[in-house]
């Protein structure tokens, strides 16, 4: 293993050395190098490379040895978070401490070494194919278009037939997507075949989301109520971007919507970063609604292996082999 591809050493490289290294990695992994970019957020930062492959944007994330998991507060919750939890505890008649309650849903504390990788910057849908409205597979179903006309007359912005077709309004016209359901193993095979990529492991995902943070969330030990959050927008926030959806310290848009579960690698279908909106739908409020977005939250493991196209999303990763890179890194540092 070459420690120079890991974050502590990678961060000390001169920009010219990083540039050379990123260009060399791009050639070896058949990526198009775009530029070096400095990402900084939530007291962490990383100047790294942006890449493109197959219309997707990737970022190079250096490896690191970090502590993952959560067992207690580092900073402690502010008054607003404490009051929200107190109201919920009173409603469900819970008499333990906040730490005891939250710890039930967190992974145990452990030290892990995460290898370097290229990571898709944004979440992507699974099994939806964008097609023109005059696609024969659309026009062959006049009942779809009849239903769409009824919805369009009600000023609806979208219309979907479960696991079949979706229409979305685009100004004065409509766009269509056909659904292609697939199982978890089928999707993993297609990802490897089409992109030479895979899903992150739960530990890799926790690192990509939190960077080894010891607080409950990357920004602290509670929810920041000044943020604009999906599903909890205030009227005065119209037109403002969603705070958590913006790039983190690795340049990733990650864990920003509890309704969007992110597929990770497992023996059966496993997700991180959301619960499909269960806590929000259950009236648990913003803090517990966003708790599944914590990098320390236990992954959800499902036995059926059936991907839900409206709630399950993915992020491709391409792992960098660290063996054989001693000469390459030494050359970059000369």
TrEMBL record:
Protein's name according to its UniProt entry: Sulfatase-modifying factor enzyme domain-containing protein
Native organism: Faecalibacterium longum
InterPro entries in the record: CTDL_fold (IPR016187)
């Amino acid at each position: 293993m070459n420690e120079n591809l890991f974050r502590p050493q990678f961060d000390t490289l001169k920009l010219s050395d990083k540039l050379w290294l990123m260009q060399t990695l791009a050639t070896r992994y058949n990526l198009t190098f775009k530029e070096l970019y400095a990402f900084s957020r939530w007291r962490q930062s990383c100047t790294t490379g942006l890449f493109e492959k197959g219309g997707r944007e990737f970022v190079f994330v250096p490896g690191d040895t970090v502590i993952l998991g959560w067992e207690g507060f580092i900073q402690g919750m502010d008054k607003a978070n404490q009051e929200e939890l107190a109201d919920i505890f009173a409603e469900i008649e819970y008499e333990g401490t906040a730490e005891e309650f939250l710890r039930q849903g967190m992974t145990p504390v452990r030290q892990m070494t995460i290898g370097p990788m290229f990571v898709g910057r944004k979440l992507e849908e699974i099994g939806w194919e964008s097609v023109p409205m005059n696609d024969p597979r659309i026009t062959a179903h006049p009942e779809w278009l009849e239903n769409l006309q009824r919805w369009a007359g009600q000023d609806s912005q979208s219309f979907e037939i479960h696991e079949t077709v979706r229409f979305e309004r685009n100004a004065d016209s409509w766009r269509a997507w056909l659904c292609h359901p697939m199982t978890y193993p089928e999707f993993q095979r297609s990802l490897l075949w089409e992109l030479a990529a895979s899903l992150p492991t739960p530990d890799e995902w926790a690192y990509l989301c939190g960077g080894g943070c010891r607080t409950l969330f990357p920004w602290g030990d509670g929810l920041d109520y000044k943020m604009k959050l999906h599903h909890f927008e205030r009227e005065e926030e119209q037109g403002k971007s969603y705070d958590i959806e913006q790039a983190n310290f690795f340049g990733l848009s990650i864990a920003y919507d509890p309704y969007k579960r992110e597929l990770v690698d497992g023996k059966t279908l496993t997700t991180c970063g959301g619960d499909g909106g269960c806590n929000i739908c259950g009236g648990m409020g913003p803090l517990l609604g966003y708790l599944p977005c914590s990098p320390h939250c236990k992954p959800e493991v499902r036995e059926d292996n059936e991907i839900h196209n409206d709630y399950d999303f993915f992020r491709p990763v391409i792992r960098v082999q660290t063996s054989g890179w001693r000469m390459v890194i030494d050359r970059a540092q000369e």
